[in-house]
Amino acid sequence: MTAKYQVIYQALRRSILSGRLAPNTPLPSENALAIKYGVSRITSKRALNELAAADLIYRVQGVGSFVKGHRTSNGSRRILLVIPFADSHGIGNYEQGISDTLADTDWELLSMPNQQFAALPIKQIQQEYAGVLYYPTTLSADTARLITLYLAKIPIVLLDKTIPGVAIPSVTADNEAGGQLAVQHLLKLGHRRIAFLARTNFWDTFTGTVSARFFGYLNGYRDDPPTASDPLAWAQVLTTRALPSERAAFLRQEKISAVVVENDLEALRFMQQLKQLGWSLPADLSVVGFDDLPAARLQEPALTTIRQDFVQIGTEAVNTLLAQMNDPAARLPEHKRVPVTLVTRASTVPFN
């Protein structure tokens, strides 16, 4: 449960960082805040003290508290969202959380695909944008560019992925918890031979979103593993066998009754391929996806999946970026994980 002073602190902090409260605007008094939030004056005073400690307000003895003026290094009020437009239907609605947070402020949100952003000179980015929200296509493709931005001291926050060892803040879903939730759900239904299916060879580096989901899958599996099973080998075979008929034959051969798939799009594609081969789903195979995209509800059978809160991820990301732009010297949390939830639908049934 969030402490009461933190509720006041976070509400005022968001209003200050977003620009809703302009520099030198007077804040409500300790008494006014105490009445508004139904807390003691000691609690409201602590919230104001925390804001002062965070260098967000200044206090004038006998007069009150006022918003402290901060400006971005280049004076820009533009935030750039870099996201692969071609795949936007499969990466969730981050933009809603970002837009909602910036609504009624003087911040302007612009979007650009990764390929176009990669061609921009660093100097142009520094001059035109106050900060960047960046969704990497892959870490292997984007890390060099991200390091250049980091060294140029351009405020940046990553969506969905994190670079280990580099202090670039990032916001992701709790992918490990999601993988664990998926397996625990299937175990409760009586399944014991549960495989993991990915689109790419995540085991080449064991880093990134898919690897985190796989490790969560392993964590959920280890308490009740079947005899003579090799989850990593299963994942490698299923991922590298491109033909649906080869994957189907392997599932039959290994008596695998359920599959956790790296994301909803891959899960829906795989289910369609199996149905074209004459499989009856979920009778022949239970399937769990990850993301809870709108298409997951429209599939027949509707897809059981792990829901990412894309809106909350977007909100956390832009708040982290605003804090970074407000105080570039501050050491920010390097990685935030947003909780996930299991959404049970018709694609998973008890083992028989």
UniProtKB/TrEMBL annotation:
InterPro entries: LacI/GalR-like_sensor, Peripla_BP_I, Tscrpt_reg_HTH_GntR, WH-like_DNA-bd_sf, WH_DNA-bd_sf. GO terms for molecular function: DNA-binding transcription factor activity; transcription cis-regulatory region binding. SUPFAM superfamilies: Periplasmic binding protein-like I, Winged helix' DNA-binding domain. It holds the Pfam family Peripla_BP_3. SMART domains: HTH_GNTR. It comes from the Bacteria. Residues 2-70 form the HTH gntR-type domain. CDD domains: PBP1_LacI_sugar_binding-like, WHTH_GntR. Keywords: DNA-binding, Transcription, Transcription regulation. This is GntR family transcriptional regulator. It comes from Schleiferilactobacillus harbinensis.
